[in-house]
Amino acid sequence: MTEQPGVVVTGVSGRMGQMLVREILAHDKLRLVGALERAGHDWVGRDLGEAMGAAALGIAVSDDALEVFAKAQAVIDFTAPAATVEFAALAAQARAVHVIGTTGMTEEDLQKIHVAARHAVIVRAGNMSLGVNLLTQVTKQVAAALDADWDIEIIEAHHNRKVDAPSGTALMLGEAAAEGRGVDLDEVSDRGRDGITGARKKGDIGFHAVRGGDIVGEHEVLFATGGERISIKHMASDRSLFARGALKAALWGQDKAPGEYDMLDVLGLKG
Ligand SMILES: NC(=O)C1=CN([C@@H]2O[C@H](COP(=O)(O)OP(=O)(O)OC[C@H]3O[C@@H](n4cnc5c(N)ncnc54)[C@H](O)[C@@H]3O)[C@@H](O)[C@H]2O)C=CC1
Ligand SMILES: O=C(O)C1=N[C@H](C(=O)O)C[C@H](O)C1
Questions:
Q1: Is the CB of 136 under 6 A from ligand 2?
Q2: Domains in the chain and their CATH numbers?
Q3: How far is CA 269 from the centre of its chain?
Q4: Which catalytic residues are annotated (predicted)?
Q5: Residue 10 has what pLDDT?
Q6: Distance 79 CA to ligand 1 centre (A)
Q7: Is 103 among the annotated ligand-binding positions?
């Protein structure tokens, strides 16, 4: 029997990092082989299990990406854009599947990830849950069925520590709506209205970000026209669903050809 793929978790002290560690330790087809944090973080050099307030795991938290990636068949990365761009090149060098959950990336960042995907499998999604990925497909279908007399607004809500807006998921939903409608999102996107904005421009897709407390992640796509509204919504109440999606992607990517993939590929929802 072949050995189980070894996984490195980056940003291991973070909300998603710790959730990923717990899910990998409970997984029967993946094993944890490394843990990475940013240089200067007080977890670096400590045993991961002890740093998490549990029993020792025999895995020291490292700040040396190149060294830990060399042991991995998959790198699961929910950190920050600058770190993720750097990890994409290093994971490709190590020929490890790079699962990217990080959001808030610029076009320039995405271009660098695209270059790294020439040599390795990269699975990237602003949301790793089955429900949200299904919602993108439904959004595309509804947008394709309705004309521009239906206004599309995307409303998202997250915890008060989130640093990027609109969320990666909101952008995925916006892309899906724009694709369904046959328009370019960059041309019709209207973000965070404020002041005397004038009347809503026909065909625009609006984005609104709520931030508060410990909201895990909520996304609503609203289609509104004279006399009626359609609202489709996803509510995440537990981060473990994002972590489980990421583990699925890490396993799925093991036998794939180099390239960029998303969760629709992993979940078999493309089409
Ligand atoms: N795609 C998805 O399904 C989901 C995506 N996310 C995204 O994941 C990212 C992280 O979210 P959270 O865990 O809530 O944030 P967090 O702030 O709790 O964790 C981020 C971690 O990354 C670490 N980090 C930053 N730079 C680093 C570097 N150069 N090397 C190693 N570690 C580094 C930080 O020290 C921190 O521990 C965000 O972009 C968020 O939007 C979050 C949940 C689900
Ligand atoms: O930062 C978060 O927490 C989340 N980020 C992702 C996003 O930007 O959409 C996914 C999820 O909603 C949680």
A1: no
A2: 6-124+239-267 (3.40.50.720), 130-236 (3.30.360.10)
A3: 17
A4: 158 (proton donor/acceptor), 162 (proton donor)
A5: 98
A6: 3
A7: yes
Residues across the chain: 271
Read off the amino acid at residue 190: D
SS3 87: helix
**Phi and psi angles of residue 152, each rounded to the nearest 5 degrees, phi first:** -110, 125
Q: Binning pLDDT at 50, 70 and 90, where does residue 1 land?
A: very low
- At residue 136, the 3 state secondary structure works out as helix
Which ligand 1 atom is the nearest neighbour of the CA of 168? 41
Antiparallel, parallel or unpaired: β 31-36 and 97-100: unpaired
Which sign, positive or negative, has the C-alpha torsion 144, 146, 151, 153?
negative
Strand-pair category, 259-261 with 151-158: unpaired
Q: Which two tokens stand for residue 2?
A: 């072949």
Query: 158 CB less than 6 Å from ligand 2?
Result: yes
- Please state the ipTM of this predicted complex: 0.99
Instruction: Estimate to the nearest angstrom the gap between the alpha carbon of 187 and the chain centroid.
Output: 24
DSSP category for residue 202: T
263: which residues sit within 8 A by CB, 6+ positions away?
123, 125, 127, 128, 133, 245, 249, 269
Name 154's bridge partners.
207, 221
Whole-model pTM: value is 0.98
Name every protein residue with a CB atom under 6 angstroms from any ligand 1 atom.
Answer: 10-11, 13-17, 36-38, 41, 78-80, 83, 101-104, 125-128, 168, 242
